[in-house]
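Write out the 3D structure for:
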Amino acid sequence: MEILRFGHLLLWAAAVLAGAVLVLCLLGLATRDRRFLLSARSGFYAIFVLLLGASITLVHGFLAGFYNNHYIYSYSERALITGFKLAGLWAGLDGSLVFWTLVQAGMAAAVALQYRWSARNASGRRMEPYVYLVLCTVLGFFIALAIQQDAFSEMGIEQRLVASERSRIPMDSSGNLLDGHGLNPQLVNCWFVLHPPCLYIGLVAFSVPFALALAALITGELGGYWLAVVRRWTMVAWIFLTSGIILGGLWAYRQLGWGGYWAWDPVENASFLPW
């Protein structure tokens, strides 16, 4: 369980670093010194690494069977095959926020990497600090949510006793739960492994065109550079969102038999709007 506490600390470290990146962007704007923006770029890479580490610790908890953890207990069990244990990262709200934040950090790091070349363009160079500010604000918001939900929390002994009695799960002599409550049977489907990541990536990727749009409005850079770069990012988001919507429709139609692709789930309908 120590590794899960370490994962929670990595979330906090990412939050602190996101605040530092925000300050660096503001300093870059105030002083016109590009060294601050170059440091902000490196900060986005570091945030992604920290959140990747946090996600890996949670996945390790699923694979190792740390059932004292409330989230792992709720969405896993020993009999579950490895693929669904890996997918436990996005099986519930707490873990989904960690995964969503990881994807958001990955997008921000990809934009920062892109600006190694885009900054050579005059329009791109003027937009860069504002793009970073928007992405850092969005990223900081989701890191705060992930910390607040805390997928890494351990149940106290009284909670474990209640869980053991309620679900008839054995405990060892030290009071550790030896199994989990298990995954909802409706989620035990191959589409569950593929659909949520595609949908999340598609939704999160739209934050990049959003950041580019705000930066263009602030700077007045609405020319060819902006059109080209925002089109590429919008197509990336659209392709993943399309895949996620189709996979989600297949999952619902074949697994649940709810009678239609769109009448069954407001999440799917909501994802259809940005599409």
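The two ends are 40 Å apart (CA to CA).
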